[in-house]
Structure formats: structure tokens, C-alpha cells
Fold this sequence. Notes:
mainly alpha, two-stranded antiparallel sheet, 3 helices, 81% helix, rod-shaped
Amino acid sequence: MDILHLVDRLEDMINNSRAIPLTRNVVIDEDRFIEIIDQMRISIPDEIKKAQQLLAQRDRVLAQAQEEGNRTIQLAKQKAEEFAGRDAIVEAAQTRAEQIIAQSRVEAENIRTDADEYVMDALGTIEAELSRLLNQTRNGIAALGIEQDSRLQERAVEMESYPVDDPQDETL
């Protein structure tokens, strides 16, 4: 039986009892009053048990909610750390890629400069060798004292008309 219902019955009993004139006292049925009190004694432990069960259930629900909240927070922290780690890895990779590109550009420029120097040295050597051979050929012809026919003269003129490039000219 519900404890509040029993309290209501006691209140009704007092309200419906006969009043003693000139006092605030009432006459009540002792047996009915004791019966209601006994029912209250029986009901109170049940009500307390129910209340304790509800409190225990509430505590379990709160503990589960707290545990779930902690797990959710932990997962969120892990995800945030993963994303931060990924961002750091991506940033480090981008920085390394930029370093590699810059280093490659420097190396390419050095190779280009070395190749230009090599070509200039080779062309200078070839030019010097050709000039030496041309001088030797002219000296040989002059030493032989052979008169050149018109064809040889034309070739000599042609050879002299070839421009000799300046070794410093990089337009080659």
C-alpha cells in the first residue's frame, strides 16, 4: 500500500472525528488508528526499498553516463591527436619536398654551369687546334712554293672568310 494513501487516511480520520468541546482535541477510534499505523510500518520499508532501488538505479545510470562521456572525450582526444599528427606529418612532408626542390634547382644550375664551362673549354680547344692546322696548311703551301690554281685560291678565300667566333660568345 502507498504510504501517502495511508497518511491521507489518518488525516481523514482526524478530520472526521468528534471534537471535544472547548478544546482542540478530538476523539478517534484507537483500533482504526493503530491499524493504519501498522500498515504504515509495513509500507515504509517497502517505500524505502523502492526509493533506495531508484537511487541505486539513478547512480548506475549516472555512472554509465559518466563512463560513456569519458570514453567519448577520450575518443575525441585521440582523433584530435591523430589529426594533429597527420597535419604535422603533412607539414613536415611539404617542408621536405620544398627543400628537395630547392636543392634540385641548385644542383641543376651547377650542372648547367659546369656543362657550359666544359663546352666553352672544348670549343676553345677545337678553335685553337683548327687555327693551328690552318696555319700549318698555309705554311706548308707557302713552303712548297706551289702556285695555286684558281680552285685552290677560291678555297683559301673561302677558308679565310669563315668567321672565327669569340670563345666568350655564348650564343653558340
